[in-house]
């Protein structure tokens, strides 16, 4: 056991119970021996819907499967079915953990080479279950002991007492599979555990730690043709003795240029141990040329880490000799009212315009009031070679460069990477080193970084271009394709280096274990939830965008065929065999110094500057097909945008052309739609003729003016057609421009901190804390935990005005609905008293049933999303909570109903799943329900 002495960082006055110097602490300890069962097959991104493979074989004693695995005697004669082992069964194995917490798990007796030759590298993915003994020392009269735990590169973990009663079902905690704990922000000023470790508290004693680990090709790479795939876990624990912890390693602070902070927001991490009290935190600085203050109190629950955001107000100039600014954080206990103060010395880095800079900003946009969803940052790389006048580069398009997975944008390898084309380069973080694969919130943050750069540059007297050249490498290369195809009007060109097509093509989903149990019709609906992120389906939007794809011919990470495939798809849409310039660099791997300065790239950029792009009118005349799956995350092409779809979950397309029509003096804009409900058209010079949509003339479009909205409808007495409308006459719930559209992953697209409202029971509170931690680690999303009572009083609806809401519990009623209002088909309602779930006019009785469902919020001027996570018992609630979106590539549409069979059948255990209609009612055509869902009759009875 390690002995450690710690001194508290708390300073100044304190009315809370605490000590400034802790006694010598006996640290938690894990035994070196780990007992493992596996390997079992693992489909790509199926881990959330699956549980332990052992759930298919519950013990005859009736014991809970997780408890049985934790406590059963080690017996090498025990076996479990697995297709990966000779004889079709796997048994116990043992592995030794090193002193630094590293645990490597590999199975040398498996013929991995044979599986690769049969099904490719996706077949190398596998999962294991491991257990090891955990010692949590403490005095008998001490109560719960607070500690921190890191599980790096592991999927999830749990703690089961060696003996005694366990509150079932066992609580599982997400691991840090991306190893954020090893990044600069994870390690800076950290102790034995990282800044992203989880805070827990248990009674002192002996426990069995359970771990579920997966070897995922996309994360850990191809081990090689003749090598054994190895799961490399790191497990570290550390006692947490402080009442409140200031995580200076997580601080986000901008550079200072010419005495001005290059950002209007900063943030600092604050952690409250699991044995602490819920607190409110406010902050204020002295005025030293700028003042810093929180815009509202930040509530932090026990066991939670939150980033406290402070608004920057410039009042003068920071003197060159200023190296820090002192901020006082006032911490007030919500339970007792006691207070304490923390002092944060903000480091100040003075930079010149010729240096690499850091700009901070509110993401995804500046809040109307209250704190932002998160404080983000982007690195700014000055032009190279340097222009004669650094303050005036308005004629040179700005590079927006998206980094690869696991890359921190301030790393020298990335800040030195942008093309030496004399342009400013914006290097956004995209939430985290992995983020959302440059989809969703990561994409929004990238666009906001580009916008904020222009704003901050203007504040220091620098004129930059409004034009953007999109660049990306690896995951960022895929991201470049994604952003370009969703917002073609925002860019002048795209350069994608070593970018893959889409996540399902990178590491195929062919090994999905759900396929062995689920109705293919259900799998089709689930897979449709990824349609908005399928780049290949959107490549029709790039026919007029200049593009270059570059790849190393020996790339062992992202095979070169990905770039070639994307080029061929775009070429087919454009009818031009040479539509995309593809550069295969002989002998080069996935990355090399100077990759983005290869001669073909610099020549491509130079040609862009001397080429006049097609006007919108010319594009419309030549014709194109506009593709869209989710209008909430898609922009316009040639000033035309698909703003709503008829059937959510299905692809929408719009054929655009300008042509002469008999009887019309001017050329007309002719549109043919597939699954399109609303179209936005921006008038342009040279296109003043009538608009024909699906063969029907609508009206004359003036050459100037605001965006025109056309909505399809079934008009009484006139049949189906299109009308030019004033959008204000229509319900805002149906307007996807306001972001009110699924799938479930869209809950992360919150303008403010996500509010997590939990039921009045310990299970719901535990889940709220677990989800808040996962949102912070995987997305840096700020979350505020409140009770359902607070939510029902509208005190936090939404908190501070702009946050999406996650509702957790076994019983929940929308605070906007009166007691006498019958829930609509879009409103799930549960009753834990009867152990039933009613949903969309159907009743489900099965034990362990859980529901996750997205729905809109319309509250005054606020438009947002709410995610219901409910269960008819604790098992159902835990299963439903597993589907709260944390990682990309997970196939969950607008709603899903889970059952205990999901733990071993995956999607085959779903009772139902689907999309809502455009008006948020039940969609018969894009939903699937099994026999467990019984229709409720009009009189309230059911059959």
From TrEMBL:
Annotated stretches, region: Disordered: 813-834
Keyword field contains Signal: yes
GO BP, sorted A to Z: proteolysis
Composition bias type Polar residues, residue spans: 821-833
Keywords: Signal
Pfam families: Peptidase_S9
Domain Peptidase S9 prolyl oligopeptidase catalytic: 458-592
Matching InterPro entries: AB_hydrolase_fold, Peptidase_S9_cat, Plant_Biomass_Hydrol_Est
Molecular function terms, GO-annotated: serine-type peptidase activity
Protein name per UniProt: Peptidase S9 prolyl oligopeptidase catalytic domain-containing protein
Lineage: Eukaryota, Fungi, Dikarya, Basidiomycota, Agaricomycotina
């Amino acid at each position: 056991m390690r002995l450690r002495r710690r001194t508290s960082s708390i300073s100044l006055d304190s009315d809370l119970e605490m000590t400034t110097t802790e006694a010598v602490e006996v640290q938690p300890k894990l035994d070196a021996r780990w007992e493992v069962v596996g390997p079992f097959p693992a489909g790509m991104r199926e881990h959330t819907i699956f549980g332990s493979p052992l759930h298919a074989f519950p013990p005859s004693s009736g014991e809970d499967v997780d408890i049985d695995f934790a406590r059963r005697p080690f017996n090498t004669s025990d076996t479990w079915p697995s297709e990966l082992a000779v004889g079709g069964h796997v048994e116990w194995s043992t592995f030794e953990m090193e002193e630094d917490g590293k645990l490597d798990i590999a199975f040398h007796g498996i013929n991995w080479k044979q599986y690769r030759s049969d099904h490719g590298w996706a077949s190398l993915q596998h999962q294991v279950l491991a257990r090891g003994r955990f010692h949590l020392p403490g005095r008998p009269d001490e109560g719960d002991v607070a500690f921190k735990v890191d599980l790096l590169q592991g999927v999830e973990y749990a703690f089961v007492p060696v003996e005694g009663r366990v509150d079932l079902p066992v609580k599982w905690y997400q691991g840090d599979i991306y190893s954020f704990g090893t990044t600069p922000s994870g390690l800076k000023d950290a102790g034995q555990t990282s800044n992203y470790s989880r805070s827990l508290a248990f009674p002192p004693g002996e426990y069995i730690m359970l771990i579920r680990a997966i070897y995922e090709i996309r994360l850990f790479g191809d081990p090689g043709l003749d090598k054994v795939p190895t799961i490399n876990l790191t497990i570290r624990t550390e006692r947490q003795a402080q009442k409140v912890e200031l995580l200076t390693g997580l601080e986000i602070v901008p550079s200072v240029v010419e005495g001005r902070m290059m950002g209007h927001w900063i943030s600092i991490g604050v952690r409250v141990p699991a044995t602490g009290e819920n607190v409110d935190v406010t902050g204020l600085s002295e005025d030293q040329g700028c003042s810093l203050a929180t815009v509202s109190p930040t509530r932090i629950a026990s066991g939670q880490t939150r980033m406290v955001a402070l608004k920057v107000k410039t009042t003068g100039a920071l003197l060159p000799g200023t190296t820090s600014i002192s901020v006082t954080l006032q911490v007030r206990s919500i339970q007792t009212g006691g207070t304490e103060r923390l002092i944060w010395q903000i480091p100040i880095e003075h930079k010149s315009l010729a240096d690499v800079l850091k700009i901070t900003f509110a993401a995804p946009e500046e809040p109307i009031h209250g704190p932002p969803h998160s404080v983000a940052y982007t690195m700014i790389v000055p032009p190279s070679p340097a222009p004669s006048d650094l303050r005036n580069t308005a004629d040179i398009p700005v590079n927006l460069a998206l980094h690869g997975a696991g890359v921190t944008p301030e790393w020298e390898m990335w800040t030195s990477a942008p093309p030496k084309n004399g342009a400013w380069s914006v290097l956004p973080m995209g939430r985290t080193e992995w983020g959302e694969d440059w989809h969703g919130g990561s994409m929004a943050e990238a666009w906001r970084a580009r916008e904020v750069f222009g704003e901050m540059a203007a504040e220091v007297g620098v004129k930059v271009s409004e034009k953007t050249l999109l660049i990306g490498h690896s995951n960022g290369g895929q991201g470049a394709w994604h952003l370009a195809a969703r917002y073609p009007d925002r860019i002048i060109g795209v350069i994608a280096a070593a970018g893959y097509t889409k996540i399902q093509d990178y590491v195929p989903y062919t090994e999905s274990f759900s396929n062995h149990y689920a109705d293919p019709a259900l799998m089709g609906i689930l897979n449709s939830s990824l349609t908005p992120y399928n780049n290949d389906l959107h490549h029709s939007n790039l026919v007029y965008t200049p593009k270059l794809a570059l790849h190393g011919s020996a790339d062992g990470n992202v095979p070169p065929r990905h770039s070639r495939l994307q080029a061929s798809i775009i070429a087919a849409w454009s009818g031009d065999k040479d539509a995309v310039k593809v550069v295969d660099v002989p002998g080069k791997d996935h990355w090399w110094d100077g990759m983005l300065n290869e001669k073909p790239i610099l020549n491509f950029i130079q040609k862009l500057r001397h080429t006049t792009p097609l006007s919108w009118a010319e594009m419309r005349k030549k014709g194109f097909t506009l593709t869209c799956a989710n209008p909430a995350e898609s922009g316009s092409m040639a000033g035309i945008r698909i703003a709503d779809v008829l059937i959510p979950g299905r692809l929408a397309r719009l054929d655009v052309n300008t042509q002469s029509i008999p009887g019309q003096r001017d050329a007309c804009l002719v549109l043919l739609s597939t699954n399109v409900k609303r179209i936005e058209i921006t008038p342009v010079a040279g296109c003043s003729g009538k608009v024909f949509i699906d063969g029907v003339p609508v009206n004359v479009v003036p050459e100037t003016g605001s965006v025109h909205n056309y909505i399809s409808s079934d008009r009484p007495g006139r049949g189906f057609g299109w009308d030019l409308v004033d959008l204000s006459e229509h319900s805002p719930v149906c307007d996807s421009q306001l972001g009110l559209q699924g799938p479930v992953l869209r809950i992360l697209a919150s303008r403010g901190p996500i509010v997590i409202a939990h039921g009045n029971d310990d299970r719901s509170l535990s889940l709220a804390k677990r989800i808040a931690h996962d949102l912070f680690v995987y997305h840096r999303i700020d979350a505020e935990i409140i009770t359902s009572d607070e939510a029902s009083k509208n005190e936090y609806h939404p908190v501070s005005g702009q946050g999406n809401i996650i509702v957790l519990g076994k019983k929940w009623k929308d605070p906007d609905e009166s007691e006498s209002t019958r829930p609509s088909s879009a409103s799930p309602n549960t009753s834990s008293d009867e152990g039933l779930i009613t949903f969309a006019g159907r009743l489900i009785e099965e034990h362990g049933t859980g529901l996750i469902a997205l729905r809109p919020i319309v509250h005054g001027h606020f438009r947002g999303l709410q995610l219901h996570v409910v269960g008819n018992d604790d098992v159902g609630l835990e299963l439903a909570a597993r589907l709260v979106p944390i990682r990309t590539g997970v196939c969950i549409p607008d709603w899903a109903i889970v059952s205990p069979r999901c733990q071993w059948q995956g999607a085959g255990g779903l009772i139902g799943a689907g999309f809502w209609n455009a008006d948020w009612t039940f969609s018969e055509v894009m939903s699937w329900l099994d026999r467990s869902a019984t229709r409720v009759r009009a009189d309230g009875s059911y059959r």
